[in-house]
UniProtKB/TrEMBL annotation:
It comes from Olea europaea subsp. europaea. Its EC number is 2.5.1.39. It is an enzyme of class 2 (transferase). Its main location: endoplasmic reticulum. This is 4-hydroxybenzoate polyprenyltransferase, mitochondrial. HAMAP family: UbiA. PANTHER family: 4-HYDROXYBENZOATE POLYPRENYLTRANSFERASE, MITOCHONDRIAL (PTHR11048:SF28), PRENYLTRANSFERASES (PTHR11048). GO terms for cellular component: endoplasmic reticulum membrane; mitochondrial inner membrane. It catalyses: 4-hydroxybenzoate + (2E)-geranyl diphosphate = 3-geranyl-4-hydroxybenzoate + diphosphate; an all-trans-polyprenyl diphosphate + 4-hydroxybenzoate = a 4-hydroxy-3-(all-trans-polyprenyl)benzoate + diphosphate. It is found in: Endoplasmic reticulum membrane; Mitochondrion inner membrane. PROSITE patterns: UBIA (PS00943). Its cofactor is Mg(2+).
Length: 379
């Protein structure tokens, strides 16, 4: 009985070898007589065959229909386990772009420390991404510092008040933007996971949260003098209208500059009770030019999605000339800061630090890779 099984097994193996030879004959040149009698050679050559069958559907079907004859001896499983089919599959997986959930937000401290119900609102206000708050707060701090009495420190209480206001107003602006742009956000890879666009929060919940933030912001504004209250409240017109600009013009970044740098006017007014146009207007202009630099770089992340969705940006307007444009804006930014400092009678340390700032801005423009989303975000 054992001899019968062994003889039957040899016939099966030889039959399997014949089918392998037939299948391989369409791939490689006909084997020599010595090779055709060497089943071991077929096993060694099988990985090339398997790699071919992954790319050739007719050969794959012929192989599967034929190779079942040698399954009882486990050769089929052994070949698939030890051949470089697994290597080929792993290489194909490596070549495929990895999807690490790019449409989902990266986990931040919000997802670790805040209660479950508070997390969507915190994400809506972007409180885990403080760069936006800093960009809104810096012009305020510049203005408050320049408005200080010469040879004295700036009003730190006022700076803390404006820092709180920047956090609240930035969160309110993000909420307004997400409510008005929810249809666009769903079509853009970077924004489709935002709370309103993804459906985690309803528009009504977003509106309630907006009212809450604006109420707190009003409490901050009421701490200022009457002139500053009117000036601060007038900025809401810019905040509410900004999301529409990307539908109307290729210059929404310029409009964002007018909005984000309103603190350059408000900070001075909060300290002095009025405005000095010779100082605050160049300071305000420098902030607008600065915003055109960093937000144009930022807009290059979404340029493919913007074209598909139909919204506009300076990244699309400038195209391959972007670096020339933002270089000009950078020079205008530094020049406006120098002019404002000159009119404010600031000493040489101001200009020394301004030279350092211009070097950093020049490095940023020179080294940014506008074709890389990651580098645009980092810069």
């Amino acid at each position: 009985m054992a001899m019968y099984r062994l003889s039957h097994g040899r016939r099966l193996l030889c039959c399997g070898h014949s089918y392998l030879s037939i299948a391989l004959s369409g791939i490689n040149p006909p084997p020599t007589s010595n090779q055709s009698n060497n089943f071991l050679h077929s096993l060694l050559d099988a990985p090339n065959f398997f790699e071919f069958t992954l790319r050739n559907s007719s050969s794959r079907h012929q192989f599967y229909n034929s190779f079942h004859l040698i399954r009882p001896f486990g050769v089929y499983q052994t070949l698939f386990g030890n051949s470089h089919i697994s290597t080929l599959a792993s290489k194909e997986n490596e070549q495929k772009p990895k999807n690490n959930g790019s449409s989902k937000p990266d986990q931040s401290w919000i997802d670790v420390y805040l209660p479950q119900k508070a997390r969507p609102y915190a994400h809506l206000a972007r409180i885990d991404k403080p760069i936006g708050t800093w960009l809104l707060a810096w012009p305020c701090m510049w203005s408050i510092t320049m408005a200080a009495v010469p040879a004295t420190l700036p009003d730190f209480k006022m700076m803390a008040l404006f820092g709180s206001g920047a956090l609240l107003l930035r969160g309110a602006g993000c909420t307004i933007n997400d409510l008005l742009d929810q249809d666009i956000d769903r079509k853009v890879e970077r924004t489709r996971s935002r709370p309103v666009a993804s459906g985690i929060l309803t528009p009504f919940q977003g509106l309630c949260f907006l009212a809450f933030q604006l109420s707190l912001g009003l409490g901050v504004l009421l701490q200022l003098n009457n002139f500053s209250r009117v000036l601060g409240a007038s900025s809401l017109l810019l905040v509410f209208s900004y999301p529409f600009m990307k539908r109307l013009t290729f210059w929404p970044q310029a409009y964002l500059g007018l909005t984000f740098n309103w603190g350059a006017l408000l900070g001075w007014a909060a300290v002095r009770g009025s405005l000095d146009p010779a100082i605050v207007l160049p300071l305000y202009a420098s902030g607008v030019f600065w915003t055109l630099v960093y937000d144009t770089i930022y807009a290059h992340q979404d340029k493919e999605d913007d074209v598909r969705v139909g919204v506009k940006s300076t990244a699309l307007r400038f195209g391959d000339s972007t670096k020339e444009w933002i270089t000009g804006f950078g020079i205008a930014c530094i020049g406006s800061l120098a002019f404002s400092g000159f009119n404010a009678n600031l000493g040489w340390p101001y200009y020394a630090f301004l030279i350092g700032a211009s070097g950093q801005l020049g490095w940023q423009i020179l080294t940014v890779d506008l074709s890389s989303r990651a580098d645009c975000n980092r810069k």
